[in-house]
Amino acid sequence: YLLEALKAAEKGDYDKAEALCEEANTSIIEAHKAQTSLLTMEASGDDIAYSVTMMHGQDHLMTTLLLRDLMKHMIELYKRGSN
Predict the structure, then answer these.
(1) CATH code of the domain occupying 2-82
(2) Is the dihedral of CA 40, 45, 49, 50 positive or negative?
(3) Which residues are tagged catalytic?
(4) For the residues of the chain, what is the DSSP string, one character each?
(5) Which end of the chain offers a freer environment for a tag, N or C, measured as fewer CB atoms within 10 Å?
(6) Contact status, residue 78 vs residue 14, Cβ threshold 8 Å
(7) Taking the chain, what is the end-to-end CA distance rounded to the nearest angstrom?
(8) Where in the chain are the domains?
(9) Neighbours of 17 (CB within 10 A)
């Protein structure tokens, strides 16, 4: 969603870009909730099995959070440049 949002902004379709960012944010929130649930379980004393897959997922979530914030700024820059 986020890269498609950037492409839409490049074309001047800012409404679509912002809608795609919101759609991406919905997925990001769900992923963050899942991560928080696992961390809460571990903090409560549950033994959580860590794996390369889980670490990889954490890495993707953190990268996506950064990309989301960057896309918002880039879309804003495209808007400013079109005026």
Answers:
(1) 1.20.58.80
(2) positive
(3) 56
(4) -HHHHHHHHHTT-HHHHHHHHHHHHHHHHHHHHHHHHHHHHHHTT--PPP-HHHHHHHHHHHHHHHHHHHHHHHHHHHHHHH-
(5) C
(6) yes
(7) 25
(8) 2-82
(9) 25
- Angstrom distance (rounded) from CA 44 to CA 24: 30
Under 8 Å between Cβ of 1 and 28: no
Q: How far apart are CA 50 and CA 7, in angstroms?
A: 37
52, two tokens:
């390369």
Count of residues for the chain?
Answer: 83
Q: Give the pTM.
A: 0.75
Per-residue pLDDT of the chain (83 residues; tens, 9 = 90+): 899 999 999 999 999 999 999 999 999 999 999 988 988 988 898 888 777 888 888 899 999 999 999 999 999 999 998 76
Q: Which two tokens stand for residue 74?
A: 């880039």
Instruction: Tell the residue number behind the tokens 């099995």, with chain if given.
Output: 49
